[in-house]
Every structure is written in structure tokens, then in C-alpha cells.
């Protein structure tokens, strides 16, 4: 039996929530599973030191690396090589969307033993138990790449045994638990074949065996919420098929009135979904993907079968007006620049719609078209008179290996073959990105003077890193998700973590927040802080402006 099991992500930052579902599933079936959810190691030396520490602590017989996103292929290789160097005997498995798509290439690495295809719960359990032929697992034996058998394990609407559990046991540190961003998967799969996407219906069928998307059993989603609601300040969702009624049942008996939520969707959201989100959560951030900001280009792509159903401009305005009824709901409209069939006409439509949506108070998500493995425009750019900066596994691996070695954090892009059109698209993209940045900065800005009435809007109670767990630490979140940890009892020299405000600095932050527990004018708060907290006016004013800029304090 391969136990214990250590599950980690291939990228820096928070790993995908998939390893949390896997760890709970393994624990419920008798396998000791642990997760490293957050990876902040910047250099190769730091990564090796941390992996060596983890292996010495957990002593795993199997390490599973989540390779969901194609951006992480180079780091997955770096991690696997480091693990093999540290412990030549440990078994190493890759899983996730990108791993399932590029399984044959990945098994060519001598540092990889197994690739888990499709959904990983039952296959990983069978692998850990030592089954002779675990389903959906391709194992390398020697230098020969084995053949891939048909997928034998495919999740669907009756998969009731996949849900979050054991959150008090699976994390290796409180920092990992604190890093969890609250992802819940109401459903899985996609029924569309967008030209730019690497997770289309066809690829889902090939890599996961999903003929169509599905909603998970309501009881399983409810189990997710019961497990994580007391442990996180927000919940995040990314599925276009659930309704307000479905979510109401999946939240039954769980108090989310002090939580925030982020909901990603496309198409025209049902009104009951919007109303349910606004009624349930203290703050809602909804992201609506409309494909692109040119209606003519959008409808043309839909007509050709190259884009999912998206709203017309008229329908979009109705959605925006509907969302504006809810003061606790913020809406972002997102689209991709540089999609096929762009022209000077569509670029002008993009400019007008972006500026109009901004004038209505919405946030904007806007970026150039990137290359994704398996996407039609990436695999066959010549059909659209375009060029891709990466098309196959060696090219993606080479691109990200160079970036990780000191690049600027970019991804491979798709460009138009016509130099004049490409220049025009790039120029428009840069202009609109500047407009979006200016608008985003202005949204959180307001002048603070003595007559400004502010109120403390920070929310929630949170876990803290284990190394300070025995100290009084207050962790606060602003409504936009920015976080601060304050520990007045700790010497500023004790910890170097820049997110931990210690000693007098931590005390000053908490004192200012307390002064604005109720709507209070700044000049009145300054008077109170001089006497009660012994803060001079200049220092207190600086702290107030700092907290206002982070939206911890907001106009009352």
C-alpha cells in the first residue's frame, strides 16, 4: 500500500482545489493523505529545501502533483526532478487536465512513474492500495511508454462520494489552510467548443470521458459548504449550469451572511441566481464572460459554432441593470481581445462597449488571446490567418521553462498574420487596458479629510500560521479580499513576514479599526485616538488613509 500520500500543486501560489477533494476521499478510505496547498518558493534552491523538509516530515510513499493548468508544465518537471533527487524510492504521479492531455509526453520524463487520467478519486485510491490495474492510470515501466486503456472511471450525477472532508487533518500547516480561497465545484465539464479554449466539450470527452457537463449531487455540494464555511471568509464558484434553487438547497442550514462570494459564469444569468447570491452573501462579486466586446464579432463566432452562447449588447445591458438593484453586488464584464475575425469595425465596437460598461460602474476584465493546448485556434492558427507562439508540448514546455528562469510572467499568445491588423489590435488592446487600469484605481479611491465619515468594513475570523498560533493574532479582510494580520504582542523583529503587522504597528491598525466600529468622522476619531491609543495625529491620519485605500474603512 502506498501510504502516506503527499499531494501538491505544480504552480506557485494556491494549488487547485482538486487536491483537497482527493485528500478527503483518500482519508475516508483509509489512506493517510496530506496536502501542501500553498507554494511560495521562488528559487530552485528554496523549492528543494522545502520539498526535502516535507518528505522528511510526511515520509510519503507516493507524491501526487496536480498539473491542471498548462502554465505549470515546466514547474511540474522541476518539482518531479527535485523529488526524485531527494528520495529515489518515492512514487511520483501527475494528474489534472494538462496531465491527462499530455500524458504520453509526461511519461517520457524519467522522474514520473504514473499519470492519472480524468477524475482522480477512485484511480488514485486504487493506485495507493496496490491494485494490479488501477483504472485510468498509465504507468511507465522502463523506457517504454505503455498504451492508454479506455477510461473506466467517469464521474457523473450519481458520484455521491466526492466531497470536501477532513479539513482539520489534511493540511500540513495553518498557513496552508489560511491560503484556501474557498473554491466549490457545483458541477463539472463543459458543453461548448469555444475556438480559444483548452477545456472544450471535445477535450473533456477525450481526457475525462465526459459526454456533457453535469451538476454534482446536492447533498455532496452541501457537504462541501458545511466543511469549509467555518474555515474561510469567501466562497468561489465556476459553473454555468447551477440555478438559485440548486444553490439554496446546497447551502441549507449554512449561515453565509458574513461571507463574500465570487461567481464566474457566462451567458445570461438567471435572475433567481443573481437574487439568491445577493440575498445569501454579505458581498457578491460576479464575473460575466461575454466572449469579446464587439457584438458583431461575438455573434459571428457564435454563428460559426466557435463561441459559447453569449448575451447580445441589449441583453448585457439588462443584466447590468438587474445587478445594479443589489448594493452588495459588484459586476465584472470580461472578454478577450484579438479573437479570430477581428477588424477595424470590431475594434471600434470594443472601444465603445468597454467605455460604456465602465460608465455604468462595472469592472472590466480584458486581455489578449492566449494559446492553450488543444484549442482549435492554437492547433490550427492558419485557418484563422493567425500565428501561435506555442502549439505543442515541447514548445509549451520550452516557453514556460524560459519564463520561470527569469521571464516576465507572460503566456504564449496568438497573433494575426497581417502586420497592419496585428498592430491595430495590439494598439487597441493597450489603450483599453490602460483605461481599465485607470478605472480600477479610481473605483477604490476617495478623498479622506476631517469631515469624511468612515466605517470599519473588515469582515471574518481566520486561521493563522502555525508559528504564531500561540500568540494573540487578529486577521482582518477588506471587502475586496485584501488581508492583514495584526499581532500587537509580537516584537517587529520576531517574524519577517510582511503580511504580519507586529508590535506598535499592529496595535495602531487595530486601534484605528476600533475607532470606526460605527460611522465616525475622521476628526472625531483622531481626537479619540490621541487620548485612548496615544497616537499622534500625523501617525493616525496615515493609518486611516492606509486602511481606507485598502477598503477596510469605507465611506459611511
Structure description:
The chain has about 550 residues and is of the alpha/beta class. It contains 20 helices and 24 strands. The strands form 7 sheets. The protein has a 6-stranded mixed sheet with strand order 3-1-5-6-7-8, sandwiched between helices. A 6-stranded parallel sheet has the order 9-12-13-14-15-16. Strands 23-19-24 form a 3-stranded antiparallel sheet. α10 (about 245-250) links the parallel β12 and β13. α2 (about 45-60) crosses α3. The protein is globular and about 75 Å long. The model has no long low-confidence stretch (mean pLDDT about 90).
Relevant terms:
556 residues, alpha/beta, Rossmann fold, pyruvate-formate lyase- activating enzyme, Outer Surface Protein A, domain 3, six-stranded mixed sheet, six-stranded parallel sheet, 24 strands, 38% helix
Give the secondary structure arrangement, pairings included:
Blueprint: E1 5-9, E2 13-14, H1 18-28, E3 33-36, E4 38-39, H2 44-58, E5 62-66, H3 73-86, E6 91-95, H4 97-101, H5 103-106, E7 114-116, H6 121-129, E8 137-139, H7 174-179, E9 183-184, E10 187-188, H8 201-208, E11 214-215, H9 218-228, E12 234-238, H10 244-250, E13 260-266, H11 271-280, E14 283-289, H12 295-303, H13 313-323, E15 329-337, H14 344-359, E16 363-368, H15 376-379, E17 386-388, H16 393-404, E18 414-416, H17 419-443, E19 453-456, E20 474-477, E21 483-487, E22 500-502, H18 503-515, E23 520-521, H19 522-532, H20 537-549, E24 553-555
Parallel strand pairs: 1-3, 1-5, 5-6, 6-7, 9-12, 12-13, 13-14, 14-15, 15-16, 21-22
Antiparallel strand pairs: 2-4, 7-8, 10-11, 17-18, 19-23, 19-24, 20-21
